[in-house]
UniProtKB/TrEMBL annotation:
Natural source organism: Perspicuibacillus lycopersici
Keyword Transmembrane among UniProt keywords: yes
Annotated keywords: Membrane, Transmembrane, Transmembrane helix
Pfam families per the UniProt record, alphabetical: Rv2525c_GlyHyd-like (PF08924)
Keyword Lipid biosynthesis tagged: no
Chain ranges of the Rv2525c-like glycoside hydrolase-like domain: 83-184
Protein name, per record: DUF1906 domain-containing protein
Transmembrane segments annotated in the record for this chain: 12-30
Amino acid sequence: MSNLRLRLIIQWVALFLLFLIPIFSIMVIFHSMNNTGNNGGDEKEDKPKEDKPEIIWGVDSASYTNNDLFVCVKDNFGSPEVWGRYLGTKDNVSTGLDKDEIKLLHDENIKILLIYNHFTDATGYDNGVKQAKEAIKLAEELGVPEGKAIFADIEPDYPVNKAFIIGWMEEINNSSYKPGIYGVFTEDRDLYHEYADAAAENDQINKSVIIWTAYPHEGITSKEKAPKFAGVAPEGSKLYGWQYGIDAEKCTIDTNLFKGEILDFLW
């Protein structure tokens, strides 16, 4: 009787295991699929990064942007996505950006490109640092958030050297802002070669400085008739902006094209 009972027990255990193993396997597979599904759900909940437009159109102006100027631009040229304006007033040259103007532009979903032009000599490392400090101060007074670019306006008739460019770049980089340079970057001008020399001496130039070039000149157009982006700047530079038309007869503006990458650096 004991041997028979033992055989029966073994048979029942074997049957139990044969029944249990498939159930256990199914539970493991279900659990694995459930976890995979949850992970997939988490990934779907993450908001994808917005794709930046390849090219955007904008204007810049030395004049104060009131509603009349905004309507003039919109009616005659189109709706800009970028509006370049100056930090601080420079007598007989440009009116400085203020908080009312900032509100008007932001209410129209327009990004502000910040320009600094309170110098006429772009030579010397110490001078580059000095001008950068003043630009940073003006930006902070307006409440410009960190990460936005400030463009040094180096006009065609200004003397310029690589020391100024390096000084400007290093001091802006030491702040919460990003360095930019505006100018006529043609191979027959000092700015082109001095910038290239600065980049050869300091590898942070091409890595951090954003270029807004004013060459070549194609002439003022409306937004719809803007040319294809064809700005010129030294090889390897972060060429994100091109002022292709200057001195419109109406509305006192210049017209520009910008690569979408610049949006991270505009206010």
